[in-house]
Amino acid sequence: MAPRDLTMSEAARVAGARVDLLLIAEMVRPGSRVLDVGSGDGELLELLATTRGCDARGIELSREGVNAGVARGLPIIQGDADVDLADYPDNSFDYVILSQTIQATRRPKWVLEQMLRVGTHAIVSFPNFGFWRMRLDLLLNGRMPSTENLPYSWHDTPNIHFCTIRDFVALVEEVGAQIDRAAALNGYGHPVRFNLPWAVWNLLGEQAVFLLSRKG
Amino acid sequence: MSDSTALRDLPAYEAARGEADHPHSAVVRFGADTPLQLDAGGVLTPFQIAYQTYGTLNAARSNAILLCHALSGDQHAANVHPVTGKPGWWETLVGPGKPIDTERFFVIASNVLGGCLGTTGPSSTNPATGQPYGLDLPVVTIRDMVRAQAMLIDHLGIEKLLAVVGGSMGGMQVLQWAASYPERVFAAMPIATAARHSAQNIAFHEVGRQAVMADPEWRGGRYLQEGTSPRRGLSVARMAAHITYMSDSSLHRKFGRRLQDRDGHTFSFDADFQVESYLRHQGEAFVDRFDANSYLYVTRAMDYFDLAADYGGVLANAFKGSKTRFCLVSFTSDWLFTTADSRAIVHALNASGAQVSFAEIESDKGHDSFLLDEPEFSAITRGFIDAAARAVGAL
Q1: Contact flag A88-B384 (C-beta cutoff 8 Å)
Q2: Handedness of CA A165, A159, A211, A20 (dihedral sign)
Q3: Is residue A25 within 8 Å of residue A48, measured between CB atoms?
Q4: What is the rounded distance in angstroms from the CA atom of residue B391 to the CA atom of residue A181?
Q5: Interchain proximity B380–A67, CB inside 8 Å
Q6: Is residue B46 reached through a cis peptide bond, with omega within 30 degrees of 0 on the bond before it?
Q7: Which end of chain B has fewer surrounding CB within 10 Å, N or C?
Q8: Residue among A63, A70, A89 whose CB faces B327 most closely
Q9: B376 to chain A: which residues are within 8 Å by CB?
Q10: Is B3's pLDDT higher than 50?
Q11: Is residue B165 within a helix (H) or strand (E), and if so which, with residue range?
Q12: Confidence at residue B11, expressed as pLDDT on a 0 to 100 scale
């Protein structure tokens, strides 16, 4: 399928939240059950609960993130996506979200498969390593790229499994899922506006958001 | 009864003894028409529950929070203790403006069944004989304790509790509440606890009980009738248990190898080390406020606790379809009720689809952390309780 632009009507009403989180929230059906894997301090959970009326729960690896979120009254458990997704029953959520986290998992493919088992839908957002500025950086400087959103140096980073948009599309095919919606954000944090082939998104998108479901 | 004179010279002990039948607390008496069913078989009747309340029940009766105390705790969670004169055991967390805010919530704390501060226990007078029950009291379980608490909550006219909160054995009661009465618990907060008592923990309890029973003053459990008191045995039991409530590093920080009021080793079995002196003090102070037979009964109740066993061996079944929201808390240095114990409960709650939060708090103070001032723990408690109160419109 060809990628499609998203309307931002819902998103525009909520000031202050990150654009990628707004994009995700817009993909979620109001009132649904959501599991956010790698929920940080609960920003997306709060957004989903307040703007979409969701029963939104989180798993977070860092103690600081969990404790900050729980102190705000959000249902977050301390856990590791690479292990703990196995404990959830089939179809126990409408959506399982992995926001800016897939590149930090040890087993991205296993995690994606588990998400599609636990949830009817999976939503994945990630930094696109095929973004033109990354390519240019590597080409000109010959060093691993480091950007405002990804400030880590190569040897001291939680991000061990970077991919490009095209890599991710290939992984989706490999696990037998289908892409229901997709969106990319350019270097200014704005959604890429036009229907374009993946190869172009792969150049222009600094971040990507995919809504997936099981095939058939 | 030659020993009785010596015993009665101990005012604290006498005060504690007096609390068993006539406590400095509100008491509700359940007569022959409302017997308590016991897991051991048969019923307990009559019996009484001693309890404290803080704050005011709102018109909608939606702001009630039940606190469940641990092994050596009692109903005096947030008031000066009538026997020891010390502050309540949870004043770090409970009081005006505190995370469990008595200006906004109606907080209830009751003495457990088998206890010795006014709820029927082995030191209470058996109405059939006019003598203390001693070992004639049937062995009670965590579920019996919770069944009795539910009768108290009925008596107070409360249909649904906003929250049930407790640590250690109190956490076991919270889990039992959520399993037995899911429709009566909106939010449950089991802290530093486990869904079953481990072999290691049963072993520690057995050491404590043997210490009590090996004391010749125990007299087969009839020490009250015979005017003796197994002070040495109960004190040793408390000393052993107290070690399990602390961590290696907190003992080291508090005492190290420092000596107690002396410059060198005395080459004797005196309390040369500060840690020895501290433990002896802990043991002595405990004996003044706690009944030895109660120690046997309450530790036994914990040993028997295995929630999954009541649900076909599958813990998730205990919470099937539960609408209760849970918040579990563990502490990094707690080796008595570990993070792994809490995580096992979280896994079961996830499998049953319940809404659950779980936080592990960094602390080097061991199991006792839940009784101490831990700012992160306080913040989590406040956040969880406030969110629950908002959800039911009780704020």
Answers
A1: no
A2: negative
A3: yes
A4: 33
A5: yes
A6: yes
A7: N
A8: A70
A9: 67, 71
A10: no
A11: strand B161-167
A12: 63
> To the nearest whole number, what is the mean pLDDT of chain B?
95
A204 to chain B, closest Cα gap in Å: 39
Residue B351 tokens read as 């499998």
Residue B376: name the closest of B359, B357, B393 by CA. B359
A2-32 pLDDT tens trace: 444 444 444 444 445 688 899 999 999 999 9
B334 in catalytic set? yes
Catalytic choice (B144, B367, B368, B369): B367
Q: How far apart (Å, rounded) are the C-alpha atoms in residues B50 and B63?
A: 21
Residues of B with Cβ-Cβ distance to A57 under 8 angstroms = 355-356
- Predicted pLDDT at A135: 87
pLDDT of amino acid A137:
86
Q: Which residues, 6+ apart, have CB-to-CB distance to B119 below 8 Å?
A: B47, B48, B49, B50, B75, B110, B111, B112, B113, B148
Report pLDDT for A49.
94
Q: Judge whether B23 and B117 are in contact, CB under 8 Å.
A: yes
pLDDT at A94: 97
* Chain pair A-B, CB pairs under 8 angstroms: 62
Question: Over the stretch B171-184, which tens digit does the pLDDT of each residue have?
Answer: 999 999 999 999 99
CB B55 within 8 A of CB B102: yes
HSE-up of A127 (CA within 13 Å, CB side)?
20
- Does B355 sit within 8 Å of A73, measured CB to CB? no
Q: Give the helix/strand (H/E) hosting B50.
A: strand B47-54
Question: Which pLDDT score, from 0 to 100, does residue A3 have?
Answer: 46
Chain B interface, best mutation among A61, A66, A67, A118, by max B CB count within 10 A: A67
The answer to whether the Cβ–Cβ distance between B387 and A74 falls below 8 Å is yes
Chain B interface test: which of A33, A55, A70 (most B C-beta within 10 Å) = A70
User: Residue B87 carries which DSSP code?
Assistant: P
Residues 332-351 of B with CB under 8 A from A: 346-347, 350-351
B125-126 and B131-132 as β-strands: parallel, antiparallel, unpaired? antiparallel
Place of tokens 């004989």: B129
| pLDDT recorded at residue A17 | 66
CB A113 within 8 A of CB A37: no
Residue B270 annotated as catalytic: no
Tokens 């563990």 belong to residue: B330
